[in-house]
User: What shape does this take?
Amino acid sequence: DIEGHTLSTSASVGIALAPADGERFEELMQKADTAMYASKARARGTFTFFNPTMDDAAKARHDLANRLRLALRRDEFRLLYQPQVFADSRRIFGAEALLRWDPIDGPSIPPSAFIPIAEDTGLIVPIGEWVIRQGCEQVRRYADAGVDCRVALNVSGVQLQRSDIVETLRRCCRDAGVSPSLLQVELTETVLMDDAIVSQEVIQGIKSLGATVAIDDFGTGYSSLAYLKQFRVDKLKIDGMFVRSLDSDQDAQAVVTAIITLAQALRLDITAEGVETAEQLVMLRALGCGDVQGFLISRPMPGHEVAAYLDRTNMSMA
Ligand code: C2E
Ligand code: MG
Ligand code: MG
Assistant: This one.
């Protein structure tokens, strides 16, 4: 018990055996370590025996981590922006910044492949700072062009724990001369559960700046109702997984309906992610979903193209 909060810990165990996996301490330790990471990747609180294929995976990760370390300096990142629109009018009110990594010495690597490594190595802190700075500068350019567009930024749990994210947001907004109210921070629900105390403070901090907070991938983690009450977030984002099976799967429909009802009852905004078909949009609208985002509306694109796109779509509807 610490300051009235009950903290719980869990352990992930990796096991290496002598002499099969090695005879020297360092060697065994390193292999047990590799097996431990395999445990962590599978689930919390489990054990895994080392096997040689893990070594290849570990080498590949190590190599990727080394290249990731150079990526910022080599200017290999860029942000794309995916429009977020009102479900009924399809007017754009914002855009989500999505990170892209194009290494100079190889093919593009998707976020799903490098974000976990950036988190494990702590590199997500400087990378995440770059994202926030870029996002703020984009907001500045929109404001200069008279474009009314809020930018949503993905922030990882590691950034919450290992850096002062509120201070970073404040500084980047100030440097770019933009109002934090034009930023929304997206946190995944697993992040909130992993460290409820830090999360609550950070959410309060972000909100006191004037920015808003969305819970990303809602429905895929714990979906705890207790934290929804505890954390004063502004929006839930329904994970694309549910949206994609809306037209074929009754259970997915029930889940989406429940999330929308929940959001309405708690007076939260709601965005459906990964909307790909007109049928899905029609269903989401009928269910009362306020905002949508997905390939049906637009793929992620460079920031200046969003402005042009917004001008065209919103103008043609005015
Ligand atoms: P997310 O935040 O849930 O972002 C939505 C993902 O769905 C994006 O994948 C987007 O390109 C994709 N998407 C959008 N519309 C559709 C659609 O209609 N169909 C399908 N199949 N997919 C769609 P992306 O860009 O590969 O990013 C994956 C994840 O990586 C993001 O999920 C987010 O968790 C993470 N990520 C991306 N950028 C950042 C970042 O700057 N910082 C951090 N910490 N994480 C990031
Ligand atoms: Mg997101
Ligand atoms: Mg998501």
Observations:
- The radius of gyration is 21 Å.
- Strands lie at 13-15, 47-49, 77-86, 92-101, 150-154, 183-188, 212-218, 235-238, 269-272, 291-292.
- The chain is about 50% helix and 15% strand.
